[in-house]
Amino acid sequence: xxxxxxxxGRASSRAYATLRREILEGQLAPGTVLAEVDQAxxxxxxxxxxxxxxxxxGAEGLVSTHAxxxxxxxxxxxxxxxxxxEVRQALEGQAARLAAxxxxxxxxxxxxxxxxxxxxxxxxxxxxxELVGELDAAIDHAVGNPILVTTLHGVRTxxxxxxxxxxxxxxxxxxxxxxxxxxxxxIVEGEESLAAYATQLHLHRSLRYIVMSLERNVx
Length: 219
Hints:
This protein is mainly alpha-helical and 219 residues long. It has helices spanning 2-24, 36-43, 47-59, 78-102, 106-116, 118-122, 125-143, 146-165, 170-189, 192-217; strands at 63-66, 70-73. α4 (78-102) packs antiparallel against α10, α5 packs antiparallel against α7 and α5 runs antiparallel to α9 (170-189).
């Protein structure tokens, strides 16, 4: 009995990880119907662990129920993006302020160094996004507030998905890298207000770019 439960749990975890990655990377586009029979067959698992995986994705807001269609990958609208950024601006601004107050400078100096050479960094956009993730993690650690950090993680999950739906533009990536550099500089210097302002400016410009990109891609 316990062995069967363990197998089901592992199958569910694998399905969850696969579907989550496919949704965040855009392989499963917004509005895609996730029929249980088809997905279970594709992932090579039974429907019970698949339902558990879908339930976890539903709790994260990545899938939702639509009348007449069943479970689908949650659609993305400009209104939804704007709402996410309203929450993100409040949380990220406060996180940057607290990080500047409580930071261990050594946790940010390597990130600061890498952001100095924008051309080298953007030669590999995957590495740039990895570095942004490292910056988020360093800020989260410096904040030392598990409630704030947990809430931020939920918002960032959706932002990562939206960012991939908006096509990368070299000019915007270059500006974004410089904006991240300003945030890191302010945190290293312990400038709380400047760190919060630099974060708000970056998020304002990111929202504007994403909305414009989504508008261009509307059929």
